[in-house]
Write a structure and sequence with these properties.
There is one protein chain. This protein has about 290 residues and is mainly α. The chain is built from eleven helices and no strands.
Length: about 290
């Protein structure tokens, strides 16, 4: 009996898979490079102006916002490069995905409030002064701040969560993907330490990377739980930036007390605890579901 060699037929799908994976990695690299370039260009203009090279034609905040637009455009552009109109439709569907369970809106908008509040009360338990209770006027101001942060946050999310996260997840799983993406996401903000009036120069870079990576884990959880809603991760991203404004008087008081635990340390610890809690609960539920 004549036998037919099976190796080439079996190897063909593997070659196709390898080519597909290589192309996917190539597109991810293109995205990350484009995101950094398109973000760092406006950052660079603002930095040069801040150091006296020339006068800015618009407020510094405009150039910071342009950086977030650049990250979104990088994600959108590479999605189109990769899949044509289908890539554009996919990103649009994620941005417009608003029909999710109400609990995810609560998690996105109110969950980030726990990071600064939890950190400050943890500090009080460890010897810091008790946080100053925010006034009603300050509380009503927070939604306005979150609203102002929403569009820049949404542009960033188009790049980080709509484009990069699903593709990283397919290669390494959700947790590893969110950790890798968190480091890359934090890194794009490094030029902000060169802006003297932006407020980053006094922060610890390693602590910032740890906190942003923990936030990346939490945003990945919201993204996955909401069925891939970038609208929800954009709201959560804006809330992460907005809620600390509620505690500005307390944070300023801590910065003037040489014996207190710095706010950045406290909010980083609170954020990491939240991220670890989400990972443990999610893993526990996953194992329970597998046993059923």
């Amino acid at each position: 009996m004549q036998t037919v060699p099976s190796t080439p037929a079996a190897a063909a799908p593997n070659r196709v898979l390898s080519v597909g994976l290589a192309a996917g990695v190539k597109h991810l690299i293109v995205f990350f490079v484009a995101a950094y370039v398109l973000a760092w260009l406006p950052f660079g203009v603002a930095i040069l102006a801040a150091h006296g090279a020339f006068a800015l034609p618009a407020p510094e905040a405009v150039f910071i916002s342009l950086a977030t637009v650049g990250i979104g455009l990088a994600g959108l552009g590479v999605a189109v490069l990769e899949s044509g109109r289908a890539g554009l439709r996919d990103v649009r569907a994620q941005v417009l995905r608003w029909r999710v369970r109400p609990g995810w809106y609560v998690a996105a908008l109110l969950g980030p409030a726990l990071f600064p509040a939890g950190g400050l009360f943890l500090g009080a338990a460890m010897g810091n002064a008790m946080p100053l209770v925010p006034s009603l006027a300050t509380l009503t101001f927070v939604p306005l701040v979150v609203s102002a942060f929403f569009l820049p946050a949404l542009f960033e999310e188009i790049g980080w969560r709509a484009y990069a996260l699903p593709r990283l997840e397919r290669r390494m799983g959700l947790l590893a993907a969110s950790l890798v993406l968190g480091v890359i996401w934090a890194g794009v903000h490094l030029p902000l330490w060169l802006l003297p009036d932006f407020g980053f120069a006094q922060q610890s870079v390693p602590l910032y990377f740890v906190q942003v990576t923990a936030i990346s884990v939490l945003l990945a959880w919201i993204y996955k739980g909401s069925g891939g809603s970038v609208l929800l991760t954009g709201l959560a991203h804006a809330a992460v930036n907005g809620w600390p404004m509620l505690w500005v008087p307390t944070v300023l008081a801590l910065s003037e007390d040489a014996h207190s635990i710095p706010f950045q340390v406290l909010i980083t610890v609170a954020t990491v605890v939240a991220a670890v809690g989400v990972v443990l609960v999610t893993e526990s539920r996953s194992r329970r579901a597998e046993r059923l």
